NUDIX hydrolase (Bosea vaviloviae), 239 residues
Amino acid sequence: MNDFADGHIVRLRQIAARIEPYDWAFARENGDAIASHWAKVSDGKPAMFNGRILLQHRAAIEDGVFRAAYFETDYAAFMTWRDHGLPGPRIRNGFAMGALRAADGAFLCGRMAKHTANAGMVYFAAGTPDRSDVREDGTVDLAGSVVRELWEETGLTQAEIVVGEGWDAVFTDGRIAFMRPVTIPLPADEARALMLSRIAVMDEQELDDIVILRSAADCDRHRMAPFMKPYLAHIYGQG
């Protein structure tokens, strides 16, 4: 698997990913530790769900195409592995994000609600891939994940957005954020109001606010995952 420093960004034409069997020794050998850690991180957060997710165990970049293999595991195993320093062979959480931008150039991010695992964090709508992202032929539909996560978290439909081509892969320790450009043909304030109105009537609300970012300096006012600021600085630096 390509080894890049934290914050390194690679432009991609395409992602070619598929699911395949893999024996993850960490999950197999640490059942008690995983159960204990999950009980701790989910305490007081009954909405947290230990579902099945997909992680990468091998990947390479060839001529602008990111080729990866994913395997299925429990979210609790992933959280324990992540919070205990990513032990064992190189595994990555490779997930897609819709880098949502308004007609006036501002970016629109969600702030995670208090009941979620990453409460208070600000980033683009996204989710670790799961079985719903796997097609019948075993390929992982990360492009489809972008549209689905935007709809699930903000209420925006595919008809209301324009999804761009290509990806920017942002590498951080244990994670790859695959950023895809997405635009909404509304000024940022109007887009934010629309998304908040949709979120307000959702049965399950992952977000408690929509944050508008008009410059790289705006990022310093928010708690952000490590892949967000390098990407936004990269985009704003392009002018």
